[in-house]
Amino acid sequence: MCTKHHCLIVPPHILEALAKQGNLACKRTLNDTQRIMQSRYRALNELLYRTYTETGGERSVYDCKNQYGQRLSLVRKEGGKQVPDRVVNAAYNASGFVRDYFRDTFQLNSMDDRGMPVISNVHYGVKYNNAYWDGDEMTYGDGDGEQFSNFAEAMDVVAHELTHGVTQFLANLEYQGQSGALNEHFSDVFATIIKQKHLNQSPSEADWLIGDTVVSKNFPGKAIRSLKDPGTANDYDVQPAHMDHYYTGSSDNQGVHINSGIPNRAFYLTAMAIGMEDVAKIWFESLRTLWRTASFPDMVEVALGVSERLSAGGSIQKNARDAVESSFNAVGLTPLTV
Ligand SMILES: [Zn+2]
Question: Rounded to whole angstroms, what are the CA distances from 209 to 80, 112, 133, 189, 330?
Answer without folding.
Answer: 32, 27, 20, 11, 20
